[in-house]
Amino acid sequence: MDKMIVYHGSKEKVSEPEIRKTRFTKDFSWGFYCTILDEQAIIWATRIDGMGYLNCFEYVPRDDLNIKRFDEISYEWLDFIADCRSGKTHNYDIIEGPMADDTIYNYVEDYLDGTISKEAFMELAKFKKPTHQISFHTIKALSCLTYLESKEVTRDE
Prior knowledge:
Blueprint: E1 4-10, E2 32-34, H1 38-46, E3 51-59, E4 67-69, H2 75-85, E5 94-97, H3 102-113, H4 118-125, E6 133-136, H5 139-142, E7 145-154
Parallel strand pairs: 4-5
Antiparallel strand pairs: 1-3, 2-6, 3-7, 5-6
Helix pairs in contact: 3-4
């Protein structure tokens, strides 16, 4: 894999990425989350009050890292997200794949609650707009990122 530009949407400029442990775990557990989709990062940055920053980084993969990739929503992806959202941890440095946005996450919750099957989840999820996330879970993983710039962004109404 060649180098690529990744984006981190935030309420503040982020030139030094860090892994923060928060009250709630995310799709791939605690980490520094980015995306290759600038419009998705802008949504993350502006979700609270319509203003934020699009933080841009160059990502250069390293062969010595433990990287997990999900090319699409799958049973394996669903089980992995269910485990992470339930508080389980993993040993990956970097994880890349689709994001469980609000709608998809509601389906994940239904699956976790036992109100829908895996098959029903997949049927509901397949019609959703593609998303992307890449999360960095270790200091070694963060060393693959080089800060480029931060741009102030607003949500288009």
